[in-house]
Design brief:
Shape of chain A: globular
Largest sheet of chain B: 8 strands, mixed
Strand content of chain B: 15-25%
Chains: A alpha+beta, B alpha/beta, C alpha/beta
Radius of gyration of chain B: 18 Å
Structural class of chain A: alpha+beta
Largest interface: B-C, 37 and 46 residues
CATH class of chain A: Alpha Beta
Number of domains of chain B: 1
Strand order of the largest sheet of chain A: 1-4
Shape of chain B: globular
Number of strands of chain B: 8
Radius of gyration of chain A: 10 Å
Structural class of chain B: alpha/beta
CATH architecture of chain B: 3-Layer(aba) Sandwich
Strand order of the largest sheet of chain B: 2-1-3-4-6-5-8-7
CATH architecture of chain A: 2-Layer Sandwich
CATH superfamily of chain B: Thiamin diphosphate (ThDP)-binding fold, Pyr/PP domains
Order of helices and strands of chain B: HEEHEHHEHEHEHHEHEH
CATH topology of chain B: Rossmann fold
Distance between the termini of chain B: 52 Å
CATH topology of chain A: Alpha-Beta Plaits
Number of domains of chain A: 1
Distance between the termini of chain A: 10 Å
Helix content of chain B: 25-40%
Strand content of chain A: 25-35%
Oligomer: heterotrimer
Chain lengths: 63, 272, 377
C-alpha cells in the first residue's frame, strides 16, 4: 500500500497528458482529455505529476 | 505533501488561459514555491510583466501585480524598485518580450544590477500572436513569419545577461520543475539583478509547425539536451554539441546593487 | 517676511515647482531643450529623499515614472518632441491604467530631430491625439517662468486628482529664458494628493466606478494588493472583453475630465471685453500677442487677447463666445496650423478665423500679428 491519494481537479485539466507520460509507475491514464488514476496503489509519491502539471489539476496527498 | 498553491493564487482565476501542455503553468508553480520558501510578504511584492503569454502570469497571483506594455517590464519594475526599494520585485515575461522589443530595458537593468528577479520564460517563439519567430527561435526553424526556415541567428539569453552585467544568471527548463524554484529562491535571495531563464515549450505555435507531435516530445528533448553546468565541466566539446547548460551559470556578490548606490547618492545630497 | 526670489530659467522653475508639489521621483532621458529640468531634479530630489534616475531611453523613462507612481510617489518626466513621440504608447497606458504622472514637454522645432535648440509649438495637437485609442488629455501651457512654477504644481494636482497623465507644454523660449520668480511659501499654493481608498484591502477595486468617476488609488507596497494592466478591464482591474464593461470604462475615463472642465480650465483674457478682433495665443507667442494688442489699441483697433493656460481640454465654451462677439480671431502659434483647427471648429463660422504661424525657429513677433490683424479687419 502506497498511502497516496491522488486528487484530480477535473475543471482544471486540459488533457495535455504530461502527468501520464512522466509517471514512473504508470499510475495514471488519459480518458480522452481528462486524467484518471486507475492504479493509485502503485504511486510512490515521487510528485512528478503534481510538479509537472501546468494546470493545477492533480495533487498527490498523503493518505 | 500536496502543495497548497491556491493560497497564492487569486480566487476564481483557474483554469488559466495557457494552452494544454504550455510550460508557463509549471513555471508559475515554481515561482509560487519559491516565494513561499523565501516567505515573501505578497503585499510587499510587485510582480511585473510585459505582453505575451508568459506576461499573463502576474494576473493570477495574489500580490501587487503590474501587467505593462510589450517589452517594458524591466523599466516599469525599475521605477517601482527605485521608488520603494523595500519591495520585493519580480519580473516575468517571455523571450520576444524580453530580448526583442525589451532588449534595451533588459540589458540596462542587468547593467544597473538593480535588485530584482527576472524569470524569463523562453519558449523560443512569439506564442500569443500566433507563432512568429523571436530572437531565440533556432536558425532554420519554421515560424509564421519564417515559412522558408528562420534565417536569423539567436541570442543566448544567459550570455546576454552576463555580458550586460547581471550578477546572478541561471537557467533551467520546464522539464526540471524542482530546479525552477531552487534557482528562483537563489535569485530572490541574491542582492542584485537575477536572471532565471526557464526554457519551456509552446506546443501550439512552435511544436506543431516544427514537427513535434506533442508537448511530451518537446519536454523529452529538453531533458535530453539540458546538461547541468557541473557535469558539463567534465564533458568534451563533442559531447556538448547540441546541448545547453543548466544550473547557476554566473554569480557575483561583489558588484554594488543599484538602489544601495542611490541610497549613497541621497546621503551625499543631504550632506551626510 | 520677504519672499524668497530667484532669477531662474523656465526649466529650473519647472523643477522647483515639482519639488514644491511633493514630487519624489523623476525618470527621464536627456533631450534638448528640456535637459535642465532633469539636471536640477538630479540635484534637488535626493536632498529631499526623492529618487532620480536617468533611464536608457525615453520609453524606459516613462515606464519608470508610471511604476514609481504606483508605489505612491508623485512622479515626473521631462522631454521634448521626439521623446513625446516615443512615449506615446505609455502615455496611453497611464490613461487607461489611470496612473497619475506629469510629463513636461519643452517644445522645439519638429518634426523628427527638427530644430533642437529652436522653439516650436507644434506638439499641441499631439498632446491631445498622440496616443492611440480614445482617451482624455490635460495639457497646460504656461507663458512665463513664474507660471511654469505654478502650472507644474497645478499639473501634479490635476494628475493626482484625476488619476491620469498631465502634460505641461512650454516652448524652448520660455524654457530657456530667465525671469525673476517668487517662491510661494509652503502651504501657499494648494498641493493635492491622490485619494486613498477607504474600503478594506479585501474589498478594494482599483477601478471601482460605483462611488464616483475617479476611483481611489492604493499604493503598491501598502496593505492593498491589486492588478494593473493596459488591457480594457473591469472594476476589479482584470482584463475583460465584455462589451458593456469596456464601453463603461472607456467613457468614464474620458467623462472624468470632460465633466469637470470647470475645475480644470484656466485662461487669461486681456482687453477682450470690447474686442472686435481676438488674438488667440499661448506660451511665448502670447507675449508677442499682448504687445501687439497694446500697439493695435494705440492705433484704435479694438484688439484683445485670449490666452489659454489649460490647452486641453480645449476652452471651447469661451472661444465660441468670443467668436460670437468678435469679427475675427487670429490664432497665433509657432506651427503651421494646429490649435486654429479647434478654434475654427467651435467658432462655427460666427467669425473669421485666421492663422498666423511660423516654423523657422524664430518667435512670432508682434509685427506679424499686427499685420495679420489689419489684413483680416
Amino acid at each position: 500500500m502506497s498511502g497516496a491519494r491522488l486528487e484530480i481537479i477535473e475543471r482544471n485539466c486540459k488533457g495535455c497528458s504530461i502527468c501520464v507520460e512522466f509517471c514512473p509507475k504508470n499510475v495514471l491514464e488519459m480518458d480522452v482529455f481528462l486524467v484518471t488514476a486507475p492504479r493509485p496503489e502503485d504511486c510512490i509519491k515521487c510528485m512528478q505529476c503534481e510538479l509537472l502539471c501546468p494546470d493545477f489539476a492533480i495533487k498527490v496527498h498523503d493518505e | 505533501m500536496a502543495y497548497d498553491y491556491e493560497k497564492s493564487i487569486r480566487p476564481g482565476k483557474l483554469p488559466h488561459i495557457w494552452c494544454p501542455g504550455c510550460g508557463h503553468g509549471i513555471v508559475m508553480k515554481g515561482l509560487i514555491r519559491a516565494m513561499d520558501t523565501c516567505e515573501l510578504d505578497r503585499k510587499n511584492t510587485a510582480i511585473v510583466s510585459g505582453i505575451g503569454c508568459a506576461s499573463r502570469l502576474p494576473g493570477y497571483l495574489d500580490a501587487c501585480t503590474l501587467h505593462t506594455a510589450h517589452g517594458r517590464a524591466a523599466a516599469f519594475a525599475t521605477g517601482v524598485k527605485m521608488a520603494k526599494p523595500e519591495m520585493n520585485v519580480i519580473c516575468c515575461g517571455g523571450d520576444g518580450d524580453g530580448t526583442a522589443i525589451g532588449g534595451n530595458h533588459f540589458i540596462h537593468a542587468c547593467r544597473r544590477n538593480i535588485d530584482m528577479t527576472y524569470v524569463l520564460m523562453n519558449n523560443y517563439i512569439y506564442g500569443m500572436t500566433g507563432g512568429q519567430f523571436s530572437p531565440c527561435t533556432p536558425t532554420g526553424d519554421l515560424a509564421s513569419t519564417t515559412p522558408y526556415g528562420n534565417p536569423d541567428p539567436i541570442f543566448d539569453i544567459s550570455k546576454l545577461a552576463i555580458g550586460a552585467g547581471a550578477t546572478f544568471v541561471a537557467r533551467t527548463t520546464a522539464a526540471h520543475p524542482r530546479e525552477i524554484d531552487k534557482l528562483i529562491v537563489k535569485g530572490i535571495q541574491h542582492k542584485g539583478m537575477a536572471i532565471i531563464e526557464v526554457i519551456d515549450d509552446c506546443p501550439t505555435t512552435y511544436g506543431r509547425r516544427n514537427k513535434f507531435r506533442s508537448v511530451i516530445d518537446m519536454m523529452k528533448r529538453l531533458k535530453a539536451e539540458a546538461v547541468p553546468v557541473k557535469a558539463a565541466a567534465k564533458m568534451t566539446a563533442e559531447q556538448l554539441e547540441g546541448k545547453f547548460l543548466t544550473g547557476v551559470l554566473f554569480e557575483d556578490t561583489e558588484k554594488p546593487e543599484y538602489t544601495a548606490q542611490y541610497a549613497d547618492v541621497i546621503k551625499k545630497a543631504q550632506g551626510a | 517676511m520677504a519672499k524668497k526670489v530667484a532669477l531662474l530659467q523656465g526649466n529650473e522653475a519647472c523643477a522647483q515647482g515639482a519639488v514644491y508639489a511633493g514630487a519624489k521621483f523623476f525618470g527621464g532621458y536627456p533631450i534638448t531643450p528640456s535637459t535642465e529640468v532633469a539636471e536640477v531634479l538630479s540635484i534637488e530630489l535626493p536632498k529631499v529623499g526623492g529618487k532620480f534616475i536617468q533611464m536608457e531611453d525615453e520609453i524606459a523613462a516613462m515606464a519608470s515614472v508610471i511604476g514609481a507612481s504606483l508605489t505612491g510617489s508623485k512622479s515626473i518626466t521631462a522631454t521634448s518632441g521626439p521623446g513625446v513621440s516615443l512615449k506615446q504608447e505609455l502615455i496611453g497606458y497611464a490613461c487607461i491604467a489611470e496612473v497619475p504622472c506629469v510629463i513636461i514637454n519643452v517644445m522645439r522645432g519638429g518634426p523628427s530631430t527638427g530644430m533642437p535648440t529652436g522653439p516650436g509649438q507644434s506638439d499641441v495637437m499631439q498632446a491631445m491625439w498622440g496616443t492611440h485609442g480614445d482617451h482624455a488629455a490635460i495639457a497646460l501651457v504656461p507663458d512665463s517662468c513664474q507660471e511654469i512654477f505654478t502650472e507644474t504644481v497645478r499639473a501634479f494636482n490635476l494628475a493626482e486628482k484625476y488619476r491620469m497623465p498631465v502634460q505641461v507644454l512650454f516652448d524652448e523660449i520660455v524654457g530657456h529664458m530667465r525671469e525673476r520668480i517668487e517662491f510661494p511659501e509652503p502651504g501657499e499654493l494648494e498641493v493635492i494628493d491622490r485619494e486613498a481608498p477607504s474600503v478594506s484591502p479585501a474589498d478594494y477595486k482599483p477601478y471601482d466606478s460605483t462611488k464616483g468617476q475617479i476611483p481611489p488609488l492604493a499604493d503598491f507596497g501598502s496593505e492593498y494588493k491589486y492588478h494593473v494592466t493596459g488591457l480594457n478591464k473591469a472594476d476589479d482591474g482584470f482584463p475583460t472583453t465584455k462589451a458593456s464593461l469596456v464601453d463603461a470604462e472607456e467613457r468614464r475615463q474620458i467623462d472624468k475630465v470632460m465633466d469637470n472642465i470647470a475645475d480644470i480650465e484656466s485662461s487669461e483674457e486681456y482687453l477682450t471685453e470690447d474686442a472686435e478682433v481676438v488674438i488667440w495665443a499661448y506660451g511665448s507667442t502670447s507675449r508677442s500677442a499682448r504687445y501687439a494688442v497694446n500697439e493695435l489699441r494705440k492705433e484704435g483697433v479694438k484688439a484683445g487677447m485670449f490666452r489659454p493656460i489649460t490647452l486641453w481640454p480645449f476652452p471651447a465654451k469661451r472661444t465660441a463666445e468670443l467668436a460670437e462677439q468678435a469679427k475675427a480671431i487670429v490664432v497665433a502659434e509657432m506651427n503651421l496650423g494646429q490649435m486654429v483647427l479647434e478654434v475654427e471648429r467651435v467658432a462655427k463660422g460666427n467669425c473669421v478665423v485666421v492663422h498666423e504661424g511660423r516654423v523657422d525657429g524664430d518667435p512670432i513677433n508682434p509685427g506679424q500679428i499686427m499685420d495679420k490683424v489689419k489684413e483680416v479687419l
